[in-house]
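Reopening this one. Same input as before:
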Amino acid sequence: MSYFNKRHFLLAGAAFLVSACNFTPAYGPDGAGSKLEGRIFIEAPSNKDTYLLTRRLETRLGRADSAPMTLSVSVSHSLDGLGATATGSSTRQHRKGTLRYTLSNSKTEKKIDSGKISNFVGYSVTGNTATSLAAERASEERLMNVLADQLIDRLLLIDPKRLP
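Same output, byte for byte:
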């Protein structure tokens, strides 16, 4: 019987590759997560979408009134009908959203990172008016949560050395 096991070999190889590329855990001592929490001032929301987005970001990153970094965001979304009945009315809606962001140094106003994030959610409109409106409102909040989570993931990938 051979002691050689492919799993041990693969795990050792993966551990070597991770250590060779200077991998730092996001929430480790020198990771980006520890340098982001409570250190980003998020500009005041201007509409319902940015309010929902800001609420989610502050839940995950913490609220900071005076911070070394400032995050500005703008959101746009559109609504498309997907399914249709024989009479031509939509049975499913597709809400697409795009988030543009800029993270900058609060003191020097130098841009640290910026970009665009897109995603979508869908909801059914086959019920009565009340259930359709509730589904529409829930889809707005769900879309902003998805975009906020994607933004946080993107911010966690920033090299911690670039953060003030």
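So the earlier flakiness isn't reproducible anymore. For the record, The beta strands are 40-42, 69-81, 92-105, 111-124.
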